[in-house]
Write a structure and sequence with these properties.
By secondary structure, the protein is α+β, with helices and mostly antiparallel strands. The chain contains 9 helices and 11 strands. Helix 1 runs antiparallel to helix 2 and helix 6 packs antiparallel against helix 7. The protein starts with 5 loop residues before the first helix and ends with a helix.
């Protein structure tokens, strides 16, 4: 299979990592922090631009080769339609280009907020239309399609369900395309309703088909104990890696401040260092009972807060601090930008304040 589809696999892999090259071409125009996750209200998680440019395409490249290995297994066990194979190998590259493109547009200050309904609904709609067209062409297998005990129980059930499911998915895809016209505050309601319909209607159809044709049990597909064990091991590894990664991001990290002859540098985990020249400092304050406010972008975990924040006290400002610290050092620059830093506790923060005053006095 690798020889047969090697050209497609190479091209699709190059498309998957294409955003890395685009990212480095756009490097001078991109900010230090780029979004890597979006929630219902927009971007809500950020990484420094090196990590943001590299992370997603490389993860998806690994996923692309996992898809290729699954496709090898699929083709060995069942003679699949060529369109099914090729489409499966281009889904991940399309996702890589699309998501990275949104990230770069955001970083270039392109106002994507009015386009969010279209950004969500159009790609989903097109994907469902494409998958709806290839579902009826998929032969009975364990890796691609509507995988249920009822569809595995017979070839007739599989074929009938996938013909019906293909029509449902094409219709749902068209409805998703129309969701681009729905205002942002309402768009998630029809999106969820359509996706639920796309999942549940083929399941109901398959169960009903089996009920009407209980005697039809030909071409039954069984999972061996070895295959079940492999699936469970892979699932366990994925869960362990995921929870470990989330745990590291959530409960670890540090903030450090280094004083140099003409400037100081503050650094935080997963963020780019920030250097401030002493000559650019207008005012330094030690404040107690100061709250972080809302994180506009940057890192927010159980350990550290770093990035751009907004509160009533400072307005929009930059923060490099440990989470939960209310004693802060507020540094106002000559252009009225505010930087807030802290130590691990109030004593360390006070020491930072005194050290900064000391070096500023020495400079004068």
């Amino acid at each position: 299979m690798f020889k047969k589809h090697l050209k497609t696999l190479i091209i699709s892999s190059l498309i998957t990592v294409l955003p890395i090259f685009i990212g480095f071409i756009l490097w001078p125009m991109l900010p230090e922090m780029l979004p890597v996750h979006w929630g219902p209200v927009g971007a809500d998680s950020f990484l420094n631009k090196t990590a943001a440019i590299l992370f997603l395409p490389l993860v998806l490249l690994a996923l692309q080769w996992i898809m290729a290995l699954i496709t090898v297994k699929l083709e060995r066990e069942s003679k699949q339609n060529e369109k099914v194979i090729k489409v499966s190998l281009y889904i991940v590259p399309a996702l890589s280009v699309f998501v990275s493109g949104i990230t770069f547009l955001f970083g270039l200050d392109f106002n994507i907020a009015p386009l969010i309904p279209a950004i969500i609904s159009i790609p989903l709609g097109l994907l469902m239309i494409v998958l709806g067209n290839i579902l009826p062409k998929a032969e009975q297998n364990k890796y691609f399609g509507i995988k249920m005990p009822s569809t595995f129980s017979s070839e007739k059930n599989w074929n009938a369900t996938h013909r019906f499911g293909g029509k449902v998915w094409v219709i749902c895809g068209i409805l998703l395309l129309l969701c681009c016209l729905v205002p942002m505050k309402y768009v998630f309601y029809p999106l969820f309703a359509i996706l639920i319909a796309a999942i549940t209607l083929p399941i109901i159809y398959s169960l009903n088909f089996k009920k009407k044709h209980p005697e039809d049990t030909a071409t039954k597909v069984n999972f061996s104990k070895k295959e079940t064990k492999i699936v469970l091991i892979i699932l366990a590894v994925v869960l362990i890696v995921t929870f470990t990664f989330v745990g590291i991001l959530t409960f670890t990290g540090s903030v450090s401040t280094t004083f140099n002859e003409t400037s100081f540098t503050v650094d935080a985990s997963l963020c780019s260092p920030l250097t401030v020249n002493y000559d650019d400092i207008e005012k330094v304050e030690f404040l107690e009972n100061s709250t972080a406010g809302n994180r506009l972008y940057g890192v927010g975990s159980a350990k550290i807060l770093a990035g751009t924040f907004k509160n009533e006290e400072f307005g929009k400002y930059t923060r490099y601090s440990y989470t939960g610290q209310t004693s802060v050092v507020a540094i106002t620059s000559t252009d009225n930008n505010i930087l807030v830093i802290t130590g691990k506790n109030a004593d360390e923060t006070k020491a930072l304040y005194n050290k900064l005053l000391e070096v500023l006095n020495e400079g004068n």
